[in-house]
Amino acid sequence: MEKQKLPNSTLILVFGIVSIVTCCCYGVLGLIFGIIALVLANKATKLYMENPENYDGYSNVKTGKILAIIGIVLNVLYLGYTIFLFSTIGMEGIQEMQREILEQYGQ
Questions:
Q1: Which band of pLDDT confidence, cut at 50, 70 and 90, is reported for residue 74?
Q2: Strands (E), 27-72
Q3: Helix 29-50 and helix 9-21: axis angle, to 10°?
Q4: Bridge-partner residues for 55, per DSSP?
Q5: pLDDT band at 107, cuts 50/70/90?
Q6: Number of neighbouring beta carbons within 10 Å of residue 107
Q7: Where do the domains of the chain lie?
Q8: Which residues are within 8 A (CB) of 72 and not within 5 positions of it... i.e. 6 or more apart?
Q9: 27 by DSSP, 3-state: which?
Q10: Considering the entire predicted model, what is its pTM?
Q11: What is the pLDDT of residue 25?
């Protein structure tokens, strides 16, 4: 019998990459992609462990799972940093910091 590809193996890999790339979107968007990738990876791993001889593409699942974990950690750290900034200096302070940075690089 021919090996079939694990369901969502490519999607898991793509979502893992997207979770890292979007970590600068205040930590929310990448966190969503990372959690979805992790859930799908766990389902695919269970399916693969039941019959490993029937499925192919487990390396994509493992790589996507690792990338999703890294993405989740980065997004949680960035989200925590964003919450810290809003709670300490507020929106006005953040806008003032942005103006100073723009003035500094504008000259």
A1: very high
A2: 55-56
A3: 150
A4: 4
A5: low
A6: 5
A7: 4-106
A8: 19, 31, 34, 35, 38
A9: coil
A10: 0.85
A11: 84
